[in-house]
Amino acid sequence: MSNSGRRRISAIMPTFNRADFLEEALDCILSQTEPPNEVIVVDDGSTDHTDAILDKFSAHVRCARINNSGAPVARNTGAYLATGDWLWFCDSDDLWRPDYLARVRGLLNADPEPRFVFGNFRLVRGGIWGTRAKFDDVPAGYWGERDVPKAHGDWIATSPLYEKLLEFQPVFHSTLVVSRTLFDTAGGYNPRFARPGSEAFEFILRCASHAPAGVVADALVGIRRHESNFSADQLRNLLGEIEILQYAKIHHSAAASVLPAIDRQITQRSLQSLALAFSSENYPLVNSLASSVKGSSIGVKPHIKMLLATMPPVLRDPIVNLARQRRP
Q1: Residue 96: helix, strand or coil by DSSP?
Q2: Which of 188, 162, 124 is nearest to 248 (CA)?
Q3: Omega before residue 112 within 30° of 0, cis
Q4: Roughly how many angstroms between the first and final C-alpha of the chain, as a whole number?
């Protein structure tokens, strides 16, 4: 297979105890109509039968093993080992249609040349691809008026997407292809976020402060949802995003001009987290989140939940139980 445009692309796949999905993910990568120049799998200390799966691909995949350190560290390790001038970050439980990388390569040769590329995707549950794509939910006017159309309905977004990603996040990690130059400029993944949910969001935000960006319009990537993947844990992801946004306020240069938008998103995610924590009776977490929403115009229900969370169980539990019994 030819690699058009002489772009050298390294596919980097961190994995941790994903043996049940890893073989299918690697088959997708190696079956691309225009495949990557190399595939690097970084085993982040797996304890399942990942080794046996990787042995099957030893002729086609470079492997490295590290002590369990989290996906950001594993991705940085893969980037360090990579020889490509473009880095394709692939999660080991996701899926790709055979023409995804060919579409990416078409955008890499576009004018203006993008700094990074991402694409549309669908959720996959039980092996079945969903009917609704992520871009179907993009708010009206989200992409702006200065986008440059390309083949297949793909386009180049000419303005930084940083502020827009605060409002709506259409960039999922397994669609992401980043130039080596941008990866080095952005500083790679931050190991600080190796454990929180939504760990890739911080790196994606830093990428999104740069432009242009290439966008693959069709949903050629399948993002799995299953019991063991972190992205299915809504509360954990929201808490991770709050931590990342608080960090961004201080450390991201692009944040300085959009601080009110970041504060709104911290409040919004804190309210969502507070509701989930209250539903699961995690009252210490409700109290912890209360400091992020005090003084906000947040409505009556969150205030009631915060008040109840401070009560001793002997007072709180009868009220909560009565409210649940009356709920339709």
Answers
A1: strand
A2: 162
A3: yes
A4: 59
CA dist 273 and 167 (Å) reads 17
The rounded distance, in Å, linking the Cα atoms of 239 and 289 is 9
pLDDT tens-place string over residues 201-226: 999 999 999 999 999 999 999 999 87
Q: In the numeric block, which tokens belong to residue 9?
A: 């692309």
Amino acid at 294: K
**Three-state DSSP class for 12?**
strand
Largest CA distance in the chain: 70
How far apart CA 191 and CA 98 sit, in angstroms, is 32
Region 179-185: what's the mean pLDDT? 96
Contact 177, 87 (CB under 8 A): yes
In this structure, are residues 37 and 10 in contact, taking their beta carbons and an 8 Å threshold? yes
Residue bearing the bigger pLDDT, 193 or 232: 193
CB contact at 8 A, 196 and 246: no
pLDDT (tens digit per residue) in 15-72 = 999 999 999 999 999 999 999 999 999 999 999 999 999 999 999 999 999 999 999 9
Choose the weakest-confidence range: 23-37, 84-98, 310-324.
310-324
